[in-house]
Design a protein that fits this description.
The chain is mainly alpha-helical. 60% of the residues lie in helices and 4% in strands.
Length: 114
């Protein structure tokens, strides 16, 4: 299966909506809330027996490609080391995380890092 930039952008927009309402730090998912990685996993439809699983165990190509794209965008835009550390940085807000996801979606579609 070949993942397109459009599919990744759509997944990032879905993940941003999840983050808008159910964001958290410090864990991938808990009590119906999600960190940036957990939101991408949720948006991509990745499950293992109905439960989200740790990112190292994932096999969903859309999930992996989208997380890789988000990582690259965060590196280009914010000089971030990675999604997890950026998401969990003290003072980070859900608005910043969702905005970055939407920015990454625009970057995938238009090639501009805003």
């Amino acid at each position: 299966m070949s993942i397109t930039k459009r599919q990744m952008a759509q997944t990032l927009r879905k993940a941003a909506k999840i983050v808008d309402e159910k964001w958290m730090q410090g864990e991938y998912h808990k009590d119906g809330k999600f960190c940036a990685i957990g939101a991408v996993e949720q948006a991509s439809g990745y499950r293992d027996g109905g439960k989200l699983v740790h990112w190292e165990m994932r096999s969903n190509e859309l999930d992996m490609a989208t997380e890789d794209a988000l990582t690259r965008y965060l590196q280009l835009r914010f000089n971030a080391g990675g999604v997890i550390t950026w998401n969990d940085e003290e003072g980070r807000t859900s608005k910043e995380v969702a905005s970055a996801m939407r920015g990454a979606a625009r970057w995938l579609e238009h090639g501009e890092v805003l």
